[in-house]
Automatic annotation (TrEMBL):
Pfam families: YdjC. Gene3D superfamilies: Glycoside hydrolase/deacetylase (3.20.20.370). Keywords: Carbohydrate metabolism, Hydrolase, Magnesium, Metal-binding. InterPro entries: Glyco_hydro/deAcase_b/a-brl (IPR011330), YdjC-like (IPR006879). The keyword Membrane does not apply. Its cofactor is Mg(2+). This is ChbG/HpnK family deacetylase. SUPFAM superfamilies: Glycoside hydrolase/deacetylase.
Length: 270
């Protein structure tokens, strides 16, 4: 078995400058996938409005990489009501429908997968929506960004190391397999913001180590690339440096050479 990698840019649709950069990366870098936010991620629990930036992002992607099917980066309003969202399936469906319409308007492929913005579907904090997410993916033929193994995403995380989370995760993996929902072998990123990234050299070394540790099978590394702009500094006060460094990483020949040296196949889906 070979090692293959989906290299994803998350949070498309939230910044026009970032959307243009992501599209350019899809056309000329190791980046292979994009995940689009279709609703306002800052809206309260009353029900977030559609994000007009989603259509813009899909248009840019379709022009640069017409074969790339976007992922749906599902957003649930925060804070959640006590007990969670009883209508979470409807909320997921509305976001999938919004991205499907945007893709059709841009003559792009329909969404191919469901992703979890800030982990809201996983239930690491609050109620888990894994059962609803897996059932939705099975009914609509979507893949789901839930790792089969937690060894990379859960490095040093006491929550993910807990017996309760591990048991819930194992049950969800079994449910996905039973329903025929495709999931990646592992997922990985650099969790946290500027403080955790420290500097560009440290961030690059983190991602180089992730490449070396990828197991056999199809996995995913996701990043949040964005240019250094006044808007990014304003809306991502503790994240903008990391986002700019991740944008730089995707154009860094050292990173590209490491993918080649490790014999990793770049793919757009698992």
């Amino acid at each position: 078995m070979t090692r293959s990698l989906v290299l994803t840019a998350d949070d498309a649709g939230t910044d026009p400058d970032a959307d243009r950069e992501i599209a350019a990366l899809l056309a000329g870098s190791p980046l292979t996938a994009v995940s689009v936010i279709t609703v306002d991620p800052g809206a309260g629990p009353g029900g977030p409005p559609e994000n007009p930036g989603a259509a813009r992002a899909v248009r840019h992607v379709a022009e640069a990489a017409p074969d790339v099917a976007p992922g749906v980066h599902v957003v649930l309003p925060t804070p959640a009501p006590e007990g969670g969202f009883d209508d979470v399936t409807d909320r997921i469906g509305a976001q999938v429908d919004a991205l499907t319409r945007a893709a059709a308007a841009a003559d792009a492929p329909s969404p191919a997968r469901l992703d979890s913005h800030q982990g809201t579907l996983y239930g690491l904090v609050g109620r888990s929506y894994l059962a609803e997410s897996i059932a939705f993916c099975a009914a609509h033929g979507l893949a789901f960004r839930m790792p089969r193994g937690l060894e990379l995403y859960g490095d040093g995380d006491p929550v993910l190391a807990s017996a309760g989370v591990r048991a819930r995760h194992a049950s969800a993996v079994a449910a996905a397999d039973a329903a025929g929902v495709r999931i990646p072998r592992v997922i990985a990123t650099l969790r946290g913001g500027d403080a955790e990234a420290r500097d560009y050299a440290t961030l690059r070394e983190h991602y180089l180590r992730l490449l070396r540790r990828l197991p056999e099978g199809a996995s995913e590394i996701f990043l949040h690339p964005a240019p250094d702009t006044p808007r990014q500094r304003d809306v991502s006060a503790t994240w903008w440096r990391k986002r700019a460094w991740e944008l730089r990483l995707l154009g860094d020949p050292v990173f590209t050479r490491e993918i080649e040296r490790e014999g990793i196949d770049l793919v757009s889906g698992w």
